[in-house]
Structures
1.
Amino acid sequence: MSHHGSLTSVNSVRVVVEAPASIASVGKLVHALHVGDLSLFGEAVSSDFVVEPYRSRLVEYYWDLKKLALSSGALGFNIAGVGPSVFSICDSMEKAGNTGRILVNYLKSLGVEAKLYVTRILRHGVRVIR
Amino acid sequence: MRHDRTIAVHGHMEEDVYGSIIPPIYLSAIFRFIDEDHAIRSDRNFVIKYTREENPTLRALERVIARLEETDDALAFASGMAAISTSIIKYVESESKVIVPIEMYSTTLQLLEKLSSKLKFKLVKVWPSAKDIVEAMDRNTSIVFMEVMTNPTLKIIDLKYVCENIPNENTIIIVDNTFTTPILLKPAKLCAKLVIHSVTKYLAGHNDVIGGVVAGAYNDIRELWDWRRIMGTLQQPFEAYLVLRGIKTLDVRFEKESRNAQVIAEYLNEHPRIEEVMYPGLSSSEYHDIAKKLFLRNLYGAVVSFKVKGDRDYIVRFMKKLKIIKPAPSLGGTESLISIASAAAAKYIPPEDRRRLGITDNLLRLSVGLEDVNDLIEDLSQALT
């Protein structure tokens, strides 16, 4: 019990310490959306100081993938939802397909099966479809 | 039974008086000897007096090979061809029939052709399939010599089917297991009397040593040992040490190279400049199901053969443009290598057989190495444009 207690308090301290940086990222994200700056948007979604350091441990080869994606033309990279899916943001369908294939090839060469989805971001927000 | 990975590292079981963890290289050509009663003997009770006969460093390698192939014992030879020629000369009977597929490493075919006229045996060449091999076997057949994954078009021959249909006990099956390695296949467990490797390829794995091995049962290896002694076809101790060093990483190398090869085969299969990809790991390959049934792991080897759309000039240009992949013979090393099949491995297959087998002048054989798979794909991509 005492072990669990101390671990929780260490994590809490870390969250408190990293919170300003994460809030700054959210600010950057909102500003990027406001001015339509996709590069800044990618930078913002790639900068998570609270959740990513912990969840990334559950995604095989996560940091390799992030490095590979960002060096292959992706503007942003992070964990999708709770994982283990990951996402890249690119400024063209061609770049997205190319980055995705590089990531899938890398995982396959390590014996990890992966599926690639290349899609556009919805521009019209939420709609009721029935 | 230990895992192959553990056997590859510790299977030499060498122990010297100093407690060396790594087997020493015994370069001594000669050892103290008065007579057989007072001689020093190896672990298999052969006298150690002269390296051409028995050498402790070779023994360390031979023990690893035997344990990986799950045989009683093994012998190390100067090259794959030294292992093959010594084995054929020991086992072939004059006036008997020797069966080989029309496709295999063509220097082996060349050797058998030359020996058949000198030693007066009948060489019967058949289509590389289990059914054709079985149909050709009869009571007069002394040897069936085959690769399970053929070189260079990567056809898979169902060794299980061949084993189930051997007509009599005088027929022996010799399998060259170089392409598949004991990671994918242990032919002696199915029926092969001898399992042969060019250790130059995957077992040594670093493109820096030539060697061969034969693995088999105690009596067969004992008899073949005498032929190795007479013919002087043994491996040298320093080379044996290099193989022993390389073999420790066989499992991780072969697995990674095979996974790289799978990704590359899938990439080439979609490429507009590629006419055909031959790789048993592709689900569209006619050999996929049999490979899946036969192989011990969900891997399909690290060689990919493919035909490029273009004439000889285009192919030469393509090979010259490659920056990471090197144009060179051989396979199974850490470096990715590419060769024109008709000018290298299949050179001594007669043109008519090459045509039937689909070994055209635009067929390339790529041995996939340990490099990053995306770097290899980028290299192929820029060279194909």
2.
Amino acid sequence: MQRAYIPDFIARQPWGVILPLSALVIFGGAVLYSAAGGHLMPWALLHVVRFVVFLGMAMVVSRIPAAWYKNAALPSYALLCVLLVLVELLGRVSGGSQRWLNLGFMQLQPSELMKPGIVLVLAWFYSVLPPSEIRTWRAIAPAVVLLGLPAGLVMLQPDLGTGLAISFGAVVIMFLAGLPLWLFITGGATVAVAAPLAFFTVLHDYQRKRVLVFLDPESDPLGSGYHITQSKIAIGSGGLFGKGFGQGSQSHLDYLPEAHTDFVFATMAEEWGMIGGFFVLIVFALVLRWGLNVALRAPDRFSRLLAAGMVTTIFFYVCINLMMVMGLAPVVGIPLPFVSHGGSSMMTNMLCIGTLMAVDRWSRPQDGVLR
Amino acid sequence: MRQTWTWPWSKQTKPLPVTGAQLTHSFERRTFVLGMAQASVGLLLAGRLTWLAVAENAKYRAASESNRVNLTLIPPRRGWVIDRTGAPLAANRADFRVDLVPDRVVDADATLSTLSKLLGLTADRVSDIKDKLEKARGFQPVEVASNLDWDKFAAVSVRLPELPGVIPQRGFSRYYPTGPAVGHLVGYVGPASAQDYEKEHNPLLITPGFKIGKDGLEKHFEERLRGVPGARRVEATASGRVVRDLGTREDVPGKPIQLTIDAGLQDYAARRIGLESGSVVVMDCATGDLLAMVSMPSFDPNSFADGIGRIEWKMLSEDDHVPLRNKVLRGLYPPGSTVKPMVALSFLEAGLDPEASVGCAGGLRVGNRVFHCWNHRGHGTTNMSKGIYQSCDVYFYHFAQQIGMDKIAAMARRLGLGQEFPMPYPGQSYGTVPDPAWKRRKYGKEWAIYDTVNATIGQGYMLVNPLQQAVMASRLASGLQLTPRLLMDRHAPRAPSLGIKQEHLDIIHAAMNEVVNGRGTAGKARIPIEGVQMAGKTGTAQVVGLNIGNGKGGLWKHRDHGHFICFAPFDKPRYACAVAIEHGGGSGAAYPIARDVMTFLFDRAKAMEVLEGYEKEWGGNVQQRMAAKYNAYAAKFGASAPEAPDDTQAAEAVEADNAPAPEPTAAQTDAAPPAPEPEASPAPAETAAPAAAPTPAAVAAPAPPQPGA
């Protein structure tokens, strides 16, 4: 009855995810407001405005039909690869590593966009692969190439965190696509063996140091271990209910590094305590559960894999960031979705959300066709 | 799902082709697994969060608090060192200072060049600071400048944001009003070294502006003088910017120490030594209180407080007057004829009649070798009194052989020679009072007659430090077993008697009075005060054999040491004094100083008048002369002077300076000790020469040669 008074366009939006997300973003805005010493600028306002803008973008994205996604998969992947090469070349020219292209109005990180990009292209690839081929090399080799090219380029930058994020998304798609389980088991075993080797050969010095310091943060309390130590102090000192809004000494006195970006969770937990932390975890749980349900409800193989891949991308961000700030993972530069200040990550995550919303639409019978 | 689970080597079983429905089924199962994995990561994170925020809350709360609150120690004001009247020998004055904390400095060169512009630092000072910055560890602060005026201090303060690691603050610094006069007496303070910090892990040590005692009393009484630091609690950012003041606790100043020293006398004596290298010790004959203990030339402890600069170091280390050696406690000299009253007293105690005489013909044959008297023309008939006031060597040669060395040595020890006194200074030298047992122990050789002969005139193996000489003078004067005292103690028990008969002392006193006020060797030492007569004894100690120099002129290094011991008034001794002048060319360099110092005790104005006359000739007082010398060095060498040593190296260098000469070098066997310059009969240089060195080779030889060799 009531529904009739609400415009159809608004009623059809998946409010079950938009409302918790908005709450999280506004909460994030409050944290950034406090981190800026009680000012909307430079972070809090921009953070909320960006969310609104990208939410609009997500709604637009959600109306794109499945066929367009499929058609765009390969070209967009190719474009991103070209951009990655371009970034690499620019970096070489200007000396030192560079990860972004300056577009004037914002700085675009192609590697950031590659996270949903790899999901899209692999979902497309497995949807066009005949089911009978799934246990042959033809199911694996192209996927490995599709993954290896961008992952290699990103790691060259060098950006280990994003490289791992891309790989993780891709591997989860392969897993869900039905590749034989033994591949993942032996793959996992190989990684377990190769990781120590890679640690000594492939990793850069600063990356190696980060890993070492992660294993023993107290070994370098003023250097790389400083981040982890200060973050744990911030979270731990917050206690159950936190020190109060605007009262976080760790962030306000600059002890906490990157208090508004990578370590925003620590900033939050210091002022809002464990309760605030649980709120963030619960919102992410709601969003991810909604995403997996969308994937399970999805009408075809492509949309299923696409949705699950997008969920995985968001999950990887959240998981690595939170593990990092709580001292369970080494320091890698990965922000917390919807809370950390930063345009690129907000855009990527909202693209994922928009894609999930699109898949959600496709699975509703009445929305199956383009209006 | 089970059928999709195949091993690569089981391929030949040819499973049925996979269908889309199977893949969908597999997708659903695997998505479920994925969801479970995500949920368990979520639970893990929630658990970790709870662990950090609840279980470890207290630990991290404390860590956060220690981050937030910055405790700045306020260096305590150091206890004063005051003299017997309460006048300061070492005090504190408020000042503005600027320090650098090496760990926080970003660009040392840029920071220093800005600072040198703001503060007007000289090139050599900048080089000194750079050296220290390189050597300093971590948070050990390096002093840039102290005692700044407000304008310079403010100029640095306003530019702090661009000068990370620079710490301007107002505090207290050590101040020695009389500077060099108390350098060796009080010592000096300086920033704690890395070694100090290793010994005592006290954050106070690396607080900018804090100084610890580095030498002398400042070091010995560090604990007492230090006090308890105050603290300022502030809320500060990670980069050290103060956000809010949380409260201040005042410091507790260190306890003062009161010395028996008379600041005026100490300063006077230091100035009176003038251009000479020597020491003056004045003691109270009733209590043993040290009224003055001066070693000059010295260093200015005020300028040592900020570390030793390169020019200063060059100046001090190149000075052959060894300004870094505390000559009172670390200088060892053959006492020369100053031992004669003591030897005479031992004769009296041994029962010698003071009127027993010997005919002095200018020398005495001992064994097959002639030992000369300083006066080659001889003194004629000489009794004990004349032996002392004319310093006749032959008298002592003769009777010493009768009485024997053991009795003489016992008296020497009784009067303080060779004795160790509990003074709060490290590395004192105590010298030697030789006797047959000592020689057997030390060299495994038998005592020879000529050893006795040498010892009775304070040559040969005998070595004393100026403090011991002063003690000897005070004990001779008072007959009391006085111990030198530096710390004021008004309730100290009276010194016990030495147990020497007063009539014996009276004989010695009369003879010593004659030295100054009669027919003696130091007529010019008479003090210009009505009713106060000073008794004394001259002494001249050879440094090199007569084959090298006659001891009067020539190379400074080869001139004789001059000694004088005295007390006044002679009939009712109140003050005793010992003066030792290195290479003064004889006792003539020593007793005028003793005379003026003693005069000062009775009439300050009169003594000052004399001193001011001298200082006009010398080119100003001690500080003025040191400043002039410093400027000359600075103009000549500037920043090119070699780097100043750090504390440890400096301490080693000082140690080397202070090492006493190896004992046997003074074993002069020359039987003709140089004249103590009596006005009565100046010995012509030629007459001194012939007797020179019957044993030339023996002069510097470690072991004494056979007589007549």
